[in-house]
Amino acid sequence: MAALPVTIALTKIKCKIETDEVGADEPYVLVTAVDLGNPLLPNAEVTRYGPWGDVDAGETRTTQPIPAGIDPNDMPFIIWRRNAWGPSGAPKAIANPAHAILLVSMMEHDDGKPGTARELAKAAVVSSLAASMGMTREQRVAKLKADIHGALGIPTGFPNFDDRVGGTHEFALSANLLNVAAGPKSKTLTIVGDGGKYEVTLQVKKG
């Protein structure tokens, strides 16, 4: 059976423990998607979700599904459930889970610029993929994690920098998770860092 086109998007975050920052948290999440289907020219994108304001321990924040006919860019103040997988947000099949890399990074927003952080992460991903040609998938994933983590440590605002909440984590795909013919499937990652603890849930859905 041919693989179904899918979308992968962040649906919610839950704050288990607030970070050590003063006041309520304002987290945002960057999801890096790399398509290794063409090993000589991998396709990569970084999608930002958030920031959400005034998040306290025990609270959950969600993304909003994009209604048909709505251009989410017309309402940037809403945290949309943007597809992180596929060109230009369109669904795309994943025939082999090993050919897809999904990485999740969380930041605590202070005086930094989330959009700039996303651009820094994207540049790091492109450079990392170029420098890791010929490496195994495991080695490429490790290098991507390290390079994204380093890029997100670059200050994008002053005086209170945005802080990384833990490292960058792989959202591992499997044939079972991608089998969404009967309905969407979700998976949750736990991210710990900067004194805080969060659960981040992504959903795989038929396109």
SSE layout and pairings?
Layout: E1 5-17, E2 27-35, E3 43-49, E4 60-62, E5 92-93, E6 100-108, H1 114-131, H2 137-151, E7 163-170, H3 175-178, E8 185-193, E9 196-206
Antiparallel strand pairs: 1-4, 1-5, 1-9, 2-3, 2-6, 6-7, 8-9
Helix pairs in contact: 1-2
CATH superfamily, by name, is C2 domain
CATH class: Mainly Beta
Major pleated sheet: 5 strands, antiparallel
The percentage helix is: 10-25%
At CATH level 2, the architecture is Sandwich
Radius of gyration: 17 Å
Overall mean pLDDT stands at 94
CATH T-level topology: Immunoglobulin-like
Q: How many E strands? A: 9
Provide a compact summary of the structure.
The chain is α+β, with helices and mostly antiparallel strands and 207 residues long. The protein is 18% helix and 34% strand. It is built from 3 helices and 9 strands.
